[in-house]
Amino acid sequence: MMDTLNSKNILNFLNKWGVILAVILIILFFTFSLPDLFLTSSNIINILRSISIVTIIAVGLTISLSVNGFDLSVGSAATVSSSLIISFFVWYNMPFGIALPLAILLTLIIAGINAFLIVKVKIPDLFATLSTMFIFEGVAMTYTGGGSISVGMPKLDGSPTTGKLPELFLKLGQTPWIIIIMLISVFLVHLFLNHSKHGRYMYMIGGNQEAARLSGIPVKKYRALAYVLSTFFAALGGIVLASYVGSSQINAGSGYLMPAVAAAFIGSSFAGHGKPNAIGTFVGAVLVGVLENGLVMMSVPYYSLNIVKGTVLALALASTYYSQKKF
Amino acid sequence: MKAVELKMNNINIEFPGVHALKGVDFTLKSGTINALIGANGAGKSTLMKILSGSYSHYTGEITLNDKPATIRNPKQAKNLGIDIVHQEVDIALVPYLTVAENILLDKIANNMENRHRIKWKEIHQEAKEVLLQLDIHLPTHRLISELTLADKQMVLIARSLINKPKFLILDEPTAPLSDTETEKLFFTIRKLQNEFNIGIVFISHRLPELFEICENITVMRDGLIVSNKKIKNTTIDEIVKDMLGDESTHLYVKKEKTIGNTTLQVTDLTNHDLSIKNISLHINSGEIVGIAGLVGAGKTELCKTLFGDFPIKSGTIQINEEIQKYKNTAQAVNKGIALVPEERRKEGIFVDEPVYKNFTISHLKNFSSRFNILSQKKEREISKEMIAKLGVKTPNELQNIGLLSGGNQQKVAVGKWLISPAHVYIFDEPTKGIDIGAKAEMFELIDQLASEGKAVLYASSELQEILTITDRIYIMYDNKIVKEVLTKDTSEEEIMFFSTGGTK
Prior knowledge:
The complex is a heterodimer.
Chain A: H1 2-33, H2 41-66, H3 74-90, H4 96-120, H5 125-143, H6 167-172, H7 177-195, H8 197-207, H9 209-214, H10 219-245, H11 254-270, H12 278-297, H13 305-321
Chain B: E1 5-15, E2 18-29, E3 33-38, H1 44-51, E4 59-64, E5 67-69, H2 74-79, E6 82-85, H3 89-92, H4 99-103, H5 105-110, H6 120-133, H7 149-162, E7 167-171, H8 179-194, E8 199-203, H9 207-213, E9 216-221, E10 224-230, H10 236-244, E11 262-271, E12 279-284, E13 288-292, H11 299-306, E14 312-319, E15 322-324, H12 329-334, E16 337-340, H13 344-348, H14 355-360, H15 376-390, H16 406-415, E17 424-428, H17 436-451, E18 455-459, H18 463-469, E19 472-477, E20 480-486, H19 492-499
Parallel strand pairs in B: 3-8, 3-9, 6-7, 7-8, 13-18, 13-19, 16-17, 17-18
Antiparallel strand pairs in B: 1-2, 1-4, 4-5, 9-10, 11-12, 11-14, 14-15, 19-20
Domain ABC transporter (chain B): 6-247, 259-503
Protein name (chain B): Sugar ABC transporter ATP-binding protein
GO molecular function (chain B): ATP binding; ATP hydrolysis activity
């Protein structure tokens, strides 16, 4: 009896603090293996910068997970917003103050379609967003004529362009701004999910949709809202990405989907008893970022990094699901 | 054909905390139709589950023509020629396979031996023959998902025929059927009886139809068989008396209250899937109104429709003389309606969340500051007050509600509607799965609400409870209100009579 109690406590403890513990251990490991290289302010900034776009997209995804949904279209949303904003500047000479909100607003059409398919047509979340993922990957490519857009390149019809990328816009993708945007996103989503009425509703819907509805929560409205917010952060991530790269590349956002999913799941498993949450997602992203950064410094080839990422994800998920009792 | 006699002798079974069957004897002859009836929890389903091999931990003896038979799992039951058609037909069918595949599912799944290729022609031929024998005209290529409920039942009956059963148990087969569908089913059942010489156990809550089709009727109550009669020698009234017995234990004595003006007025309400039809009722302030009726009569659907969870087709709902139009539960809550749903763990509470979040969920507005930021301190304070007020047994407000007992969970499920008072309180089977002590507390709580001038609707299939707590009762049968009675002028017999379809 005592023994099982103790092992249960250890599991509980690991569940709660496992990710933090892992991050600390890994940091210690790299600090001692790579003295003078790893724990320097420039490298820390480097790590934070490297995870910022993933994190921005992942906290949005976290909101969709909180209603027990799943937004696979975030990568495509990021691609769409990055194509839109670069084209606004390069093709149409739009000022920053109009281009930014307009790009985000247009990207939110994806959220509208997701919400429609999921809430009205009642397609399961995963499949609905899988379709919109493909659709908007295609839409973005069609819009850019199947190529990239950068300053000085002619339009699709061959006419020359004169648009430049505004200074303010280019700042978004540079340190410290890219890190600040990430931290603000994490903070806002944390505040929203854990300390606002709306976040509480979303978690309750995620926990038991029936009971939520019979408690008088407007379930449809909040599920739709979850996808709007998810797409919003994906759009923001896409814009930061466009600014960071300084151009719009083909399917630029799709590469961020799976790392974002991984960060959100590592975070919810290790640091939230399986409950998706913003801080956990951030720490999950940090864990992956630290590992990647350290391993590259230790001369592990970049093409082998996914082995590590996948293993961490498997461990994270194992820690949640293995300890869950089957009744 | 030779008659076979099946006997169950001195059957006992216990589940944690319940002695579900207490020495039951039951006899069934092939070629007869035997009705099995009893109130909810009487033990009829348990008895039939034993017969069809769903339980293995009972004591007692089963014999076939006086030879002992072992039935401890469904396969043994099937091999002895005993089959059951469950009430939930969809559980037993694979929706995206054809009629033929479903009829021969057992054969395809278990009797392929060393062959790997399915001979579709044979399958369809065999299925067609079985259906033909029963005079059922269903294309064998049709998918199950395209069939009506009645046709799905026919497929299940046809499937059981494949094994050439001697006994067939039909568990409430008519509950979801229309009158013409019921007629069709009866035609098939008579065929099974006369041409296949099958002995049939027919479970139903509808007394008139039992009198139409059965020869014998067995009544169960509290895990015992109380009577066993020839249909032609008995009457509906007599059967109702047998079902109820003559217990009269008083759980709770209601307070005297003054009844005020009409709070809720429902006129001619019909919902979209017709699970309630032409419902008219009213509840006055300070009044507790019961909705009586058997399982499947439409009580839950009525409760949920009033709570905005079912789209309304026609009719009106008025609260305090004002016509209310609400499209979802959120709007219903805003209009002052509260519902304590039947399935507590599934619908009433959030099992993985702490007690305090369960208390505050429906009224988070009260705990939000500007920008809708929640004050968890305030939430926990109010929850502490509610825990003390309702006597919820929990270490503290942070405890996971899933760890509390059923009665304490139910107190929280009710308590969440007390944080911000509603006008109308709807209770759907609020005492389901809670112990006697908690029941009495629940009655006190409901009585208290009424004496504060609330309008209370109390839906239950437990007649004693309804008679204990209500002032007036509407009786439902077949998704309609068939009778309105004053509690002080009625009896269990009268309510049971109307809720089983009796007419005077």
